[in-house]
Amino acid sequence: MSDNTPDPxxxxxxxxxxxxxxxxxxxADTARxxxxxxxxxxxxxxxxxDVVTAADRAVERQVIAxxxxxxxxxxVLGEEYGGTDGAGSxxxxxxxxDGTVNYLYGLxxxxxxxxxxxDGVAVAGVVxxxxxxxxxxxxxxxxxxxxxxxxxGSTQTDLAQVLVATGFGYDAKRRxxxxxxxxxxxxxxxxxxxxxxAALDLCLAAEGGVDAYFEKGLNPWDHAAGGxxxxxxxxxxxxxxxxxxxxDMVVAAPPAIFGPLTELLAELDAAGGP
Length: 274
Prior knowledge:
The protein is an alpha+beta fold. The chain folds into two domains: 8-150, 2-Layer Sandwich (Fructose-1,6-Bisphosphatase, Chain A, domain 1), CATH 3.30.540; 159-267, D-Maltodextrin-Binding Protein, domain 2, CATH 3.40.190.80. The protein has helices at residues 8-37, 54-70, 100-105, 172-185, 198-207, 220-232, 255-267; strands at residues 43-44, 51-52, 75-78, 82-83, 90-98, 111-118, 121-129, 135-139, 143-146, 149-150, 163-166, 191-193, 212-215, 236-238, 250-253. An eight-stranded mixed sheet has the order 4-3-5-6-7-8-9-10, sandwiched between helices. A hairpin with a 3-residue loop joins strand 3 (75-78) and strand 4. The chain is globular. The chain starts with 7 loop residues before the first helix and ends in a 7-residue tail after the last helix.
């Protein structure tokens, strides 16, 4: 194989990304048009503040149907309907509307997030802000992009000057613990931002719109695509104390910041509490 010949995984990742982008754009169009018509079918899930709308369900059904037509042997893991059956090695992970509370209130920070995993490893991902049309993509080993602009993350090296994005859980006791962490963290960094959509937060970190991001309690669909985009932009993405990213903690930060930030978060018991 010559140096100019793409390896099979890179070619496969590019093919999966092309499908992901097509499906995510159509799904984002549906989310935006349903928002323009007025939010309906609002109910709650884990708590009274954890909302789901008719659009969340409709968009996920659309994504599942589109992927089923294009890739009938694959499985799909979604936020609203769980997993579908499939015999292949590819699993799609979808958050139909990441940032549902923003969607409910008409705030322009909600997105369709779609990632393709091969044998459990994310190889392609797209996050599309349905309100604005902004789009971030990545393939494993192929870099991360916002449109055609390749992303490289923040160059900040001083933790005290870091702008950190984060999010909160829906359980009141968890929120109380997270608030305690923030009151101690905010004196050690430049400032804190909370936008309300984990996938978009990870993309902001990937492009340097914030220097770093952390959050406890994320599900796979919250960070499958955004995490790949952040990693391909050169950020480290993981948990605390050397653990992988998961429900206990997801941290995305440039290499110079990742160690000091995760050490500080561990000191503040950010992964603890309910």
